[in-house]
Design a protein that fits this description.
Largest sheet: 5 strands, mixed, barrel
Number of helices: 3
Oligomer: single chain
Distance between the termini: 77 Å
Strand order of the largest sheet: 1-2-3-5-4
Helix content: 40-55%
Number of strands: 5
Structural class: alpha+beta
Shape: rod-shaped
Length: about 140
């Protein structure tokens, strides 16, 4: 079997693998295989072709993958629900460890819990959301 046929088979198999995963797994090695395919017409030694295939694939992956991931990965856009995390709120109903209170954040009233007693009028920081309740802590002054 001629070496160019082997590289053509490798290219086809890697292309099928890349299409089936869609995670940028082996696109760089497809490029390496293409270069090795061209080299197979000029250089007879398989070891040199294989070394170029592996080295070029690894170098391309290390250089371009972080750039492509930044471009292709969608950034999380905060929705109305999770954008209140980290915001300051004002307590409108007293919160205790065993009693759900109420806070006003971003112009809206929310049920809120805390592991400590917090009086009305206290400024708190929203730490997280537990179901439909905000988990808050006293804000630093």
């Amino acid at each position: 079997m001629d070496m160019w046929m082997l590289w053509l088979i490798v290219i086809v198999l890697l292309t099928i693998l890349e299409i089936s995963t869609v995670n940028l797994v082996c696109v760089w090695f497809i490029v390496g295989a293409l270069i090795s395919l061209v080299m197979s017409f000029f250089i007879e030694t398989f070891y040199i072709q294989f070394a170029v295939f592996v080295c070029l694939g690894l170098i391309l992956m290390l250089i371009t993958r972080p750039i492509l991931i930044k471009k292709l990965v969608k950034k999380d856009v905060k929705t109305n629900l999770d954008r209140v995390i980290g915001m300051e709120a004002v307590v409108t109903e007293e919160i205790t460890r065993f009693k759900i209170g109420e806070v006003k954040v971003d112009g809206k009233k929310w049920s809120a819990t805390s592991d400590k007693k917090i009086e009305v009028g206290t400024t708190v920081i929203v730490e997280s959301i537990d179901g439909v309740k905000l988990v808050v802590r006293k804000g630093e002054k």
